[in-house]
Amino acid sequence: MSESTLRVGVVAPEVLATYGDLGNALVLVERARRRGIDAEIVRVPLFEPVPNSLDIYALGGGEDTAQALAAAHLREDPGLSQAAAAGKPILAVCAAFQVLGKWYVDANGSRINGVGLLDAVTIPRDGRVVGEVIAHPVLAGLTKPLLGFENHIGRTRLGPDASPLGLVRAGVGNGEHGPEGAVQGSIIGTYLHGPVLARNPQLADLLLERAVGHPLAPLPMASVERLRAELLSQ
Amino acid sequence: MRQKQKNLMNARGRLATAAGHLAGRVSQKLRLGSGGMIGGRVALALDPRILAKLSARVPVVLVTGTNGKSTTTGLLRSALLPQGRVASNVNGDNMPAGVATALMNDPDADFAVLEVDEMHLPRIARQTKPDMMVFLNLSRDQLDRVGEMKRVEGRLRKAVHENPGAHVVANADDPLVACAAWDAPRVTWVAAGSGRWNDPAAFPRGGGQIIRDGRDWWVAADQTYRRPDPHWWVEDDTLVHAAGARVPLRLSLPGEINLLNAAQALAAVSALGFDAHAAAEELPKVRDVAGRYQSFDVEGRQVQLLLAKNPAGWEESLHILTADNDQLVLSVNAQVGDGEDTSWLWDVDFESFAPDSAATFYASGERAADLQVRLDYAGLDSELIADPLAAVLACRPGKVAVLANYTALQDLLAAIKTGGHQPVQEVHHE
Predict the structure, then answer these.
(1) Where are the alpha helices (DSSP H) in B129-174?
(2) If you average pLDDT over residues A69-96, what whole number do you get?
(3) What's the confidence (pLDDT) of residue A234?
(4) Phi and psi dihedrals of A223, rounded to 5?
(5) What is the pLDDT at residue B8?
(6) Fewest CB atoms within 10 A around its CB: which of A81, A101, A122, B204?
(7) DSSP tally for chain B: helices H, then strands E
(8) Do B209 and A69 touch (CB under 8 A)?
(9) Interface of A with B (CB under 8 A)
(10) Nearest 5°: CA angle at B50, between B44 and B52?
(11) Residue with the larger pLDDT of the pair A134 and B319
(12) Which of these, B2, B232, B260, B258, lies nearest to B111 by C-alpha position?
């Protein structure tokens, strides 16, 4: 963290925040503030240069035309790639997960080049998958089940440079025999909404700890534990 | 206005209608429900062309859009009542069965004013051959059900193309609505507002980026598409026509959003050839829309109900409710009719209500736990009581406001009625 205020970048919210994904940034900022760390959301509008100096980046879901606009912009703009090279935590949900991959095929069958930060490619699946997901975490540092809601038509295959974020116990995830999401360097991709950080405080704190560079005090929230217990019991 | 004369009703249609009526009555007798949809469902099953037959002799107005369908339909119906009988699905059943039931229940109507689910518009329009279609707004709602906004816009556009005889009354402030209505031979444009959630970035025709500046909008690098000049707009409490007419708007329903709904209803009445001033006098009579603005007395608690189905509706309703209530029950379900993904709760700017809120919040409904997490992160303390009626009863006697999404509101209405609690008449700002 370069300055006294932790800055959470929300990239292209007009096109990549369709499914309440702004919530991930709200969770990060609030969990930082409750530990006495100043934090703020920095909105980076579509087609404006992405600053490479933010502390965490959050990108979310979007519809296909919007997703293509985001892909076109992020392929050209160097900011996010520079941030990734510097090891800044980046969370990419759903459409953004696909956009950060090498390429994806949209609903019309057109192949769209991605940013190439994740060794992943996506093709459309037969029909939309909609429903609750439970995944066993694979990423080191995570021990608790990953919970989320998926709503997508992608089938994502990971290459050798990416590893899964989790292994699906209920739901579909990447749709390739178990993996859910992807991890490569400081980038985490996932299909999980909910928003994912609201339902998985351990993942939120992992991103925060990487950003501030030291462990954080526990932050128990009864409301979150209750929600997780309810989702796990279904 | 085009008058439809041809009588399509035949033996099969009459049989289907009779069977539908019977099913509706049996359903009510057996207390299976209000009979709202079952009659239409039976009639549709017996005769797939029943909508065409039932609507063949009546001028039809179809009202669709994400928010305000029921309210605008109710206002339009009320405004037309001095002109004759109006068949209308005032209970909010906006699928084909509900539309069929409304038409069956009033076979001698002079007008049909029908609320129609966005995705079902082409199918219902194909049969009812509307004289007019009213397009309110399109924003994210139940995303997992309807898929992408572009698809919804496509449905409306398809109905426009298939019904060139229909006069379209459309919201000029909403780029997706304008996109859908663009090719209609006759359009009345109304500046009916566009909330911050009405936020597609890409214009479906050509996929260019939508640029906004206040109410104005245009499409980047495209000379063809921009906000049409409105024929009608609202200034404070007055509806203004581009030619100079000024129509005072007085409503019993709360909130600025209902002034905009009224604007589209009166623009529609005017386009049908009736006097907007006279029609406006009828609007205060609308106090309740499908139970959505109803108030009940529940053991000394004056309970005001509001339905809101999506982020835009929730923010609008919270502004209305937090102004004069200090006990709020928020209730959220995630049934198919609500949208199964509760992520939308994070698009509601609860944070803006937190700093000056002394209100007591109850998180309720089947997804009370998701709601409570959202409120917690916004800095709002809440008590979780999943049963909405129990949450109401946990409030101290006095005013209680309930904001609920679709099936959560239905659950509460059913519980209130089962409990024998009585509607309160005088609650709305006159």
Answers:
(1) 143-146, 149-162
(2) 95
(3) 81
(4) -65, -40
(5) 73
(6) A81
(7) 15, 18
(8) yes
(9) 14-15, 18-23, 26-27, 30, 46-47, 63-66, 68-69, 128, 130-131, 149, 151, 193-195, 198-199, 221, 223-224, 226-227, 230
(10) 140
(11) A134
(12) B2
Q: Share the mean pLDDT of chain B.
A: 87
The pLDDT value given to residue B210:
86
Q: What is the pLDDT of residue B27?
A: 63
Report the pLDDT averaged over residues A84-97. Answer: 96
Give the pLDDT score at B355: 66
Q: Parallel, antiparallel, or unpaired: how do β-strands B246-248 and B238-241 relate? A: antiparallel
Contact B295, B303 (CB under 8 A): yes
The secondary element (H helix, E strand) that includes residue A126 is strand A120-137
Of A73, A94, A177, A214, which residue is the catalytic one?
A94
CA angle B86, B91, B97 (to 5 degrees): 85
What pLDDT, in 10s, does the model give residues B246-263? 999 999 888 788 999 999
DSSP 8-state code for residue A82? H
* For range A113-142, the mean pLDDT: 95
Catalytic residue list contains A136: no
Q: How far apart are the first and last CA of chain A?
A: 39
Residue A85's pLDDT band (cuts 50, 70, 90): very high
State the alpha helices, DSSP H only, in chain A: 22-33, 64-76, 79-85, 95-100, 196-199, 201-212, 222-232
d(C-alpha A118, C-alpha A102), whole Å? 7
Residue A109: count other Cβ atoms within 10 Å of its Cβ: 8
| B415 in Cβ contact with B296 (< 8 Å) | no
Q: Which residue of A has its CA nearest to B351?
A: A26
Cα–Cα distance measured from residue B147 to residue B251, given in angstroms and rounded to the nearest whole number: 35
ipTM above 0.85, yes or no: yes
Contact B202 A69 (CB under 8 A): yes
Mutate to test the interface with B, among A30, A63, A112, A152 (most CBs of B within 10 A): A63
Short-list B267, B263, B264, CA closest to B275: B267
CB atoms within 10 A of CB B238: 15
Q: pLDDT higher for A208 or B317?
A: A208
Q: What is the residue type of A69?
A: L
pLDDT at A3: 57
Quote the CA–CA distance of B326 and B354 in Å, as a whole number: 13
Chain A's closest residue to B367, CA to CA, is A227
> Quick one: pLDDT at residue B428?
39
Q: d(Cα A135, Cα A170) in Å, to the nearest integer?
A: 7
A229, burial (CB in 10 Å: exposed 0-12, middle 13-18, buried 19+): exposed
Which residues are within 8 A (CB) of B74 and not within 5 positions of it... i.e. 6 or more apart?
B88, B90, B286, B289, B290
Counting runs of H as helices and runs of E as strands, what totals does chain A give?
7, 12
Encoded tokens for B62: 């179809």
Answer yes or no: A94 catalytic: yes
User: Is 0.90 surpassed by the pTM of this model?
Assistant: no
- Predicted local distance difference test score (pLDDT) of residue B427: 39
- Beta strands A39-44 and A6-11, pairing class: parallel
For helices A22-33 and B368-377, give the axis angle rounded to 10 degrees: 60
| DSSP-derived 3-state class of residue B293 | coil
Give every residue of chain B whose pLDDT is below 50, as ranges: 32-35, 142, 144-147, 198, 426-430
Please name which of B283, B266, B268, B276 lies closest in space to residue B78, comparing C-alpha atoms: B283
**Looking at B319-427, which runs of residues are DSSP E strands?**
327-331, 360-364, 382-384, 398-404, 422-424
CB contact under 8 A, B204 and A26: no
The encoded tokens of residue A234 equal 């279904």
